User: What shape does this take?
Amino acid sequence: MASNERIIVIGAGPAGMISAHTAGLYGKEVLIIDKNERLGRKLLITGKGRCNITNNCDVNTIIANVTSNNKFLYSAVNQFTPQDTINYFENAGLSVKTERGNRVFPESDRAKDVELVLENNIKSVGVEILTQTVTKILAEDGKVYGVECADGKTYEAESVIIATGGKSYPLTGSTGDGYKFAQSVGHNIIKPKASLVPIVTNEQWCKKAQGLSLKNVTVSLFYKDQTKPIFSELGEMLFTHFGVSGPLILSASAHIRKGKFEDYKLKIDLKPALSDKQLDARILRDFSENTNKDFGNSLGKLLPKKLIPIIIKMSKIPFDMKVNQITKEMRQHLCSLIKGLELTVKEFRPIEEAIITAGGVDVSEVNPKTMESKKVSGLYFAGEVLDLDAYTGGFNLQIAFSTGYVAGLSSAGFNY
Assistant: This one.
């Protein structure tokens, strides 16, 4: 097969490898080029090294958990569903399991095993792997014809798939190269920014609670003076030296898109299972167990140790006030703190600490059924380089697998 009839895939992450494998399965000569000698570097750190492969749910649930341009994904996710992802790995001999929130992990709890399936699959269909840095997309008269690398060599191709990822975790090779490639051939780039990222707060007391992980709390995000939250979910979060992190916070960050950071505030319900009335009854019960106890020593059964001095200070109830002296108004204020511990957003942590990047190649310039550029024939996109992002829970990897599969299929000449 002549070299100009091959497909070149830039990027050996999940989207790149599944697109290379798919094109190879359909008889195409495929060259995958990545700047890293180790394939799937970013994949190896996902899910805290366990790799949350997908979410075991239906297509509509996937779409509902995509926070930008979700309608664009209907065709891709229908072509390669979460069940297809599960089958893809199980058919390769990797057993998977479904955990809380329908999150799917390898039974081994090893991200490396997920990467090995992808790597073995591309090798099984004869995909050539080149460790090199692509510097330029070669296109003429609205048609792609290859790439140029940092060593000055050019590689011809009938199709090129850009699967270079976003800008998060740049040490893994995600340095935004794909945006430059797309822009160089006329594509519009929606400004990349951090998403699923820890939040820096104005409140310094978070540092005193550093390391405290809260489970079964509800975090709500409010915009300006609106009384209805734009995000509210039950789950886990973590206090840090700069503010807050953890799954709930990362998901909340995906909704901070417009306006200024100071327009947003977080409220933490530390006791979501209790109504205000039930919480007040619970506090009264704790107080009645020892009516002569100091207020400061009365919250041990109700709150985590690190939060107690913080809540006491906010309540303005003297530490040494006897609990039998605390008024109903004081208790109500205490309840409101516990049910709505407020934090104001200062900024995001750096994009390098984000799980994914929001923004990227404008999807209005990409065919949703094929992932082919509407501007340059033979140029395809897959994965995080596109302006697509979702909540945590396996949804972002599903985007990578679905768009990667479609790009591989379409570049090989097969359309849905």
